[in-house]
Amino acid sequence: MARILVIDDDRSLREVVRYILAESGHEVLAAADGREGLALLAREPDLVITDMRMPGLDGMEVLRAVREAADDASPPVIVLTAHGTVEQAVAAMKLGAFTYLLKPFARDELRLTVDQALHTRELEADNARLRRILRERTGDGGLVHRSAAMAALLEQVRLAAPSDATVLITGESGTGKELLARACHDLSTRWDRPFVAVNCGAIPGDLLESTLFGHVRGAFTGADRAATGRIRAADGGTLFLDEIGELPPALQPKLLRVLETREVDPVGGDKPVPVDFRLICATNSDLEAAAEAGRFREDLLYRINVVALAAPPLRERPEDIALLWEHFTRLHGGRDLKSEPALLRALESRPWRGNVRELKNLNQRLVLMGGGGVLTAAALERLAPAATTLPAAGGAAAPAAAPAGALPLGPLPEDGCSLVELEKELIRRALRKHDGNRSRTAAYLGVPRHVLVYRIEKYGLD
Description:
Layout: E1 3-7, H1 11-23, E2 27-31, H2 34-39, E3 47-51, H3 59-70, E4 77-81, H4 86-94, E5 99-102, H5 107-138, H6 148-160, E6 167-170, H7 177-186, E7 195-199, H8 205-213, H9 230-233, E8 238-242, H10 252-261, E9 263-264, E10 273-274, E11 278-283, H11 287-292, H12 298-304, E12 307-310, H13 321-333, E13 338-339, H14 341-348, H15 355-369, E14 374-375, H16 377-383, H17 419-433, H18 438-445, H19 449-459
Parallel strand pairs: 1-2, 1-3, 3-4, 4-5, 6-11, 6-12, 7-8, 8-11, 13-14
Antiparallel strand pairs: 9-10
């Protein structure tokens, strides 16, 4: 149970309070005056009960000393007072006392007041713990950075988070878009409610509708039980739709209706269900181009693009690479594992097409297979040879050998050339080489499949 400090110059009252609290299982520290009571604060009581009028230090002075000694972590204080000093007790509450008890008080009244004070202290401790976790997740524990670009982006997150406005996060794959979404959620008033993430590109279209909107029993073959859906699972909290550009056209008007009416129509249902959630979307594709091409509804784009956040690629914030690397090294190998300076310089010269995700995966590989207590540039080159080298900040890099499979380029024409035609021809040849198989072609070109599909449709290469 709790440790409670009782301060009162009335010995008989002090003993009665001690008996009642000990009967409830609490440990009781007793003091006959304010000075003696303050000396017992070193034993870190969970609650202080003090008389208002005492010789020497009175209850008000005890309260001030308790608040100053422990600051925000100070134990709650209950003041005991007679009818003639109620005004003083109210003044004590304005200074931070939890409440007051009028003498004489009943045994059950004392027990109930003590239970309420201890419960409040427990809630405050939980709140402090959650805030600490939040700081860790949105600081060094999650979005690790020192660059001005990331600092500016996180400031935008902090400004946008308290509202319920929809957020669209854009950026290349691996730039931490879901971490940004979680930061928006954690800094919002919905932080203690669910954060539900759905990858629209990872679920087949025929299952995505049921996954998002839910279904009633018997809505389709195999629906032997009802399902609430991920939108309703996010009720009160945040729904994160990753790869929103992959949302099938048939589902886009249905999502738009949910956003406008705040009601969900389950598959096979005949009655909409009210729902309250905040929507955050993310994409690594160009939704404006998709809207122009008719693959994404313009009205839905306007609805989800209220607050726009752009996650910068890792190559545009090289000053974060060393910090991220050390963070991942602690995560994968512990605090005793170090990296030599040459390794960090080599990391900063890489293009990082996979961004932070690629950096994290490479770190785990090197920690597991690099050997020794120090991570070296030699081990990096042995396990993951650099395909190309980018100029480091402030200087030019030495020319790099062309990677295997690179296309040889002859002299460029003097009167210019079309990059679009070059890209179109490259995709056409790659498709022929792989008999039109889009998955193998995308892997061959080193791009996500949906990016290749978009280019095929854009250039009319079907």
